[in-house]
Amino acid sequence: MSDGPWVAPGSTPPPEPPPAPAPYPPPGYAAAPPPGYAPAPPPGYAPAPPPGYATQPPFPGPRAAPSAGPTWAELEFRPGIIPLRPLGLGDMYGAVTKAIRGNVAATMGLALLTSVVCLVPTTALGAWIASQDTLALTDDELTGEAGGVYGMLGTYLPAVGSLVSSIALTGFLAYVIGQAVLGRKVGIGETWDGTKRRLPAVGAAVLLTLVGAVVLLGLLLAVPVLLLVEGGFSAGPVLLLVLALLASVLLYLWLWTRLAFVTAVIVLEGRGVLSAFARSWRLTSGAPFWRILGIRVLTAMVVGFAAQVITVPITIGGIVAVLALGGEEQLFMWQAILTGIATLVSGAITTPFSAGVDALMTIDQRIRREGLDVQLIHAAQQGGPAPWPNAAGAR
């Protein structure tokens, strides 16, 4: 019996089916590419460099923006009104403004109280002295019966009270600013306790400075003035006087800067008068002299402008009112009173700012030269000793 399919007798057998083609390529077999064929790179990839070509790192493109995190200002350690690092002008002005707004009683309140205590007696005395020199209308001109001497003396007498007030306020504000740097808010009572023993030294330092300035000014101007008196207004003496005045201004600015920290050193470091002079001299030496001078000049301009904005309207308005009411005979007396009132108001507003800037410059210079910020951080974080006395803790 045959193995093929059954075929009926007399019929034609069917053709054989073609063999099944073999799979191409066989599974697992990678056919070799034709000679000279280079496969294309996958999408998104750069073609491979030719052999022997030295590749360079890709040019760095713009980096992605970093994720939002704390700024440098947020990372600064700031226990009080300033960050414990070298300060800029904006840091100082902002810190003083913050101290005044956050502690009105110990800054503007104490300034007003001190101004009242110092200015009321001197203004009253000045008004009495000025009243001895009355004005009379003769030949359409106002003339003083005493030649205006008493009137001028009484008018400028409130300035003496303002000077005494500013001396005390610089000591008070140095204490307030020193405690505010450590994050402490003080009251009027504590400020008085912390500075009352230092005020005599502050007054002596200011008096010594004024006497020294008058002596130096006299030495510089004595020769030119004598030459003018003896030889008249000739070119030589006048030129010499101009040069002497210019030298006086430069000498004043130099000493004004070198002795800028005397009051703050007396209050914050408890030093005596001569030691405070030497200390301020060392802290202001070298290149920082110009920075300190610039800040003090700018602060004086700002404070002076603010004071004029306050005093000029009060003085002019008061004089116009006196003349309108027919009180021109006692104009000197009213001018002394108006000067005292204007000085009291402007001193209470502007003196805390200038005194606070001087105190902060002292602290800033100690940070820059002595690493005071390290001691301040230790005192604030670990309860170490503060760099200046605390009247509340000494009770």
UniProtKB/TrEMBL annotation:
UniProt keyword Transmembrane, yes or no: yes
Keyword Kinase annotated: no
UniProt entry keywords in alphabetical sequence: Membrane, Transmembrane, Transmembrane helix
Residue span(s) of domain DUF7847: 155-345
Pfam families membership: DUF7847
Positions with biased composition (Pro residues): 11-63
Superkingdom: Bacteria
InterPro entries per record: DUF7847
Region (Disordered): 1-70
Transmembrane domains' residue ranges: 110-130, 150-178, 199-229, 235-255, 297-326, 332-360
Protein name stated in the entry: Membrane protein
UniProt lineage: Bacteria, Bacillati, Actinomycetota, Actinomycetes, Micrococcales
